[in-house]
Amino acid sequence: MNLVLGQADQLIDWAWVERNMSQIIDRTWEHLTLTGVSVGIGLVLSIALTVVVLRWRWTYAAITGFTGLLYTIPSLALFALLVPFTGLSATTAIIALTSYTLLILIRNIVAGIDGVPAAVKEAADGMGYTPRARFWRMEVPLALPVIVAGIRIATVTTVGLVTVTAVIGLGGYGFFILRGLNTFFWTQLIVGVVLSVVLATILDLILIGLQRVLSPWARGKV
Amino acid sequence: MIRLDGVSKHYPGAVLPAVDRLTLDVMRGEFVTLVGPSGCGKTTTLKMINRIIEPTGGSIFVDGVDALSVPAHQLRRSIGYVIQQIGLFPHRTIAQNIGTVPGLLGWDPARTRDRTAELIDVVGLESEMLDRYPAELSGGQQQRVGVARALAADPPVLLMDEPFGAVDPIVRGHLQREFLDLQRKLGKTVVFVTHDIDEAIFLGTRIAMLNTGGILEQYDTPEAILSEPANQFVEDFLGGERGLKRLALLPISSAEMVRGPMIDRTGTRTDAERTMAEHGVDWVGILDGKMLLGWVDRRDLVSPDLNGVEPRPFAVSLSPSSSLREALDAVVTGHARIAVVVEDGAYKGMLDLDGIAEEITE
After folding, report:
1. What confidence tens digit (pLDDT) does each residue in B15-27 have?
2. Nearest in space to B88 (alpha carbons), one of A190, A126, A24
3. Chain B residues within 8 A of A117 when measuring between CB atoms
4. Does A115 touch chain B (CB under 8 A)?
């Protein structure tokens, strides 16, 4: 028992945590903004690309092919590739992080819209909806659970990837992880990892809540 | 009310048209069933009326309006539409589903609410259902909502594409009867697609028999089609049991009933025995004035008068509006080999096999 407690005391230096509280808060903010901005821009771009896909279906293969290619590039390499153009900046981080959200988001938005039952669309037409009204009042609301599911995956993934931006001087909690690894000071490493996991979980829970609010009719289904 | 004038649908790339220059008139208040084998274009024909499928030739008039000259969405708001897959909007409550067309027409919300409450009752559902979502209802309940939704803005015309095809046979029977009553009460003009000839006969005031390629083989009342099929195709499609199907259309009141072995409860055992002997049976029906009490077996007659006997009820008793097919069923399944006909408890008479057979051969 003593041994375990002794180890734990060594692993987490609570005095360090107290001393660095303001920096932890700053890094939390950084982590949140990098995640939020990247997923936000990713969502806007994905919606735009989905509009293209829905109008010209043949573009779907090309768009998923390209975003799929982006998705395969190791994140470390992508940051390095961008640095000559955009420097060690938030822009570099956001471009890379955004590009990783595209595949997930586009796939889910298109799947959500495609998943609207044909009978619902035919009934909506038969009731006298114009095509535009049908899209906004039937297809979009019905696709929302699947779209939000995509946003959840993209958000959780991005929270994890933000830590890698520590290599270009950002990183949110990744800053602590990297410094912890370099200095063998485990408290920093553990604080970075634990907070990153906690943040991902909290954001996921918030999005689950949003999903339930947006689709009360689908409770227990998605 | 609805007029199809040389209407065609030719899909690009198809050799033969799905529907070829079809002309069909549906009068106000009529219930027309479109029936035929798959590929006969019955669904295509129906869906051209509200332009879910755009015709490639001919013209269509609905309530005097050239359907092809108005925007499709506007046309559809004045035509009720019910499909087999129901297509309720899953993200909207039952009340919102029913209020769909009133909403599109810009009705006042209070008026829509009143109308919705009225319709849920008309289709036989509880008003507690109004706040539920479609997924919480059974298939039969969902299709009742589908019918209510189609009736919401009180359209003069209803188009129905195999609306009862996806529910189980028992519920289907209920829905068919209830819908027929509803249609008669509301006087809607209905065009109804089915592949089930029995459903077409049961519901339709006229049946349009369609053959592959949308060719109209016969368009007439069920009675006329059953008694005089226009050609071999129609005869084949009607299948066997044409006589039985006709019986299903004829009410008992159209046949001649007999009084049968009946005596009043004030009679004696001697009266009962004489009546049985006259009819050559071993049972006798007991009346109390005009009311039918039941029947007694010869062995039940132990005392000189009838006061002590307990008449047994007839297993099946029919009303004059029941069909002759039901009467036939009662004859062949009942012990007494007859069908008793009763109206509000009063004895009307009975039918035996000979009486029914006479109607078939007529």
Report:
1. 889 999 999 999 9
2. A126
3. 85, 87, 90
4. no
Mutate one of A127, A135, A146, A214 to test the B interface: name it (highest B CB count within 10 A): A127
What's the one-letter identity of residue A204? D
The model's pLDDT over B134-184, given as tens digits with 9 standing for 90+, comes to: 999 999 999 999 999 999 999 999 999 999 988 888 889 999 999 999 999
- Which domains can be identified in chain A, with CATH numbers? 39-218 (1.10.3720.10)
CB B24 within 8 A of CB B216: yes
**Neighboring chain A residues of B100 at a CB cutoff of 8 Å:** 127
- ipTM comes to 0.79
Kindly report the nearest CA distance between residue B220 and chain A, in angstroms.
28
**Lookup: tokens for B220:** 């007439």
Order of strands across the sheet with B291-297? B262-264, B283-288, B291-297, B346-352, B338-343, B317-318
Interchain proximity B50–A129, CB inside 8 Å: no
The length of chain B in residues reads 362
Pairing of strands B189-194, B31-35: parallel
Q: Which domains does chain B have, with CATH numbers?
A: 2-250 (3.40.50.300), 253-361 (3.10.580.10)
Strands B79-83 and B157-161: parallel
**Could you report how far apart the first and last alpha carbons of chain A are, in Å?**
44
Closest CA in chain A for residue B151: A127
Q: What is the pTM of this model?
A: 0.79
The answer to whether A9 faces chain B, any CB pair under 8 Å, is no
Decide if A46 touches B, using CB distance below 8 A: no
The C-alpha atoms of residue B299 and residue B350 are separated, in whole angstroms, by: 23
